[in-house]
């Protein structure tokens, strides 16, 4: 148990991989098996995983998202998609309505299922002594990514995962203070100073890719609409 907890607390994201390292089929199957064993609502398993080995496909992914070249240089890239098509086929077979657009709940269920499977994959990768990085920005070009992988209605990309043998050591990134995140029995107000203190913690940590204070980064991100095309895309996929 202590080894598992230590592994989880030691999580790092890696973006630099040995391009000559070949992931063994047994390793990939271990990762996929661990991922598929993740918890899911009602055992619905409302997700699918696309294993992307093809170099041409991965080159196209990087063309769409040039800030993440590791999608090409890693040993393998996994694309996790929320998948409500499987249960849509069940509804057709059973001859019943498929009311997944009556509320956001099915969308939340599928997103959660896919995210839990993704996290299991990350943990399995690290247990094998390898590294990975989650790529949420595949949603920035969601139409093109969906077309690239022939995603049918009721399916949409959640995030990708680059997996490989790291070539650059990373440090464990500090998290927000416990008092800013953990609440007991009820949601409690916290001192904003905790967030300002975290700004200084991250500044001292000094990760090169972080060019702004944590507060500035998210103030800038959320001050204007983002991914406004996502609603239209989800409607096109019969999910809204």
From TrEMBL:
| SUPFAM superfamilies xrefs | FMN-dependent nitroreductase-like (SSF55469)
| Coiled coil stretches, renumbered | none
Q: Which Pfam families does the record cross-reference, listed alphabetically?
A: Nitroreductase
Q: Which UniProt keywords apply?
A: Flavoprotein, FMN, NADP, Oxidoreductase
- Every copy of the Nitroreductase domain together lies at 9-165
- Lineage, top-rank taxon, reads Bacteria
Q: Which InterPro entries match?
A: Flavin_OxRdtase_Frp, Nitroreductase, Nitroreductase-like
Q: List, alphabetically, the PANTHER family matched.
A: OXYGEN-INSENSITIVE NADPH NITROREDUCTASE
Q: Which family does it belong to?
A: Belongs to the flavin oxidoreductase frp family.
State the protein's name. NADPH-dependent oxidoreductase
Please give the organism: Candidatus Enterococcus myersii
């Amino acid at each position: 148990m202590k080894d598992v907890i230590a592994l989880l607390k030691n999580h790092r994201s890696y973006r630099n991989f040995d391009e000559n390292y070949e992931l063994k089929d047994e390793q990939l199957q271990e990762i996929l098996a661990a991922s598929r064993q993740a918890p899911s609502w009602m055992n619905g398993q409302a997700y699918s995983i696309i294993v992307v080995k093809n170099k041409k496909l991965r080159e196209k992914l990087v063309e769409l998202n040039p800030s993440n070249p590791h999608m090409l240089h890693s040993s393998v890239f996994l694309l996790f998609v929320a998948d409500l098509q499987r249960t849509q086929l069940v509804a057709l077979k059973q001859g019943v309505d498929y009311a997944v657009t009556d509320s956001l709940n099915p969308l939340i269920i599928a997103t959660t299922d896919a995210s839990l499977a993704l996290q299991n994959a990350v943990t399995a990768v690290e247990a094998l002594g390898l590294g990975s990085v989650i790529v949420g920005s595949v949603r920035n070009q969601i139409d093109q990514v969906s077309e690239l992988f022939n995603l049918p209605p009721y399916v949409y990309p959640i995030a990708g995962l680059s997996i490989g043998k790291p070539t650059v050591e990373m440090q464990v990134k500090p998290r927000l203070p416990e008092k800013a995140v953990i609440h007991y029995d009820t949601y409690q107000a916290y001192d904003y100073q905790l967030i300002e203190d975290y700004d200084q913690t991250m500044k001292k940590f000094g990760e090169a890719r972080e060019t702004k204070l944590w507060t500035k980064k998210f103030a800038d991100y959320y001050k204007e609409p983002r991914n406004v095309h996502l609603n239209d895309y989800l409607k096109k996929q019969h999910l809204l």
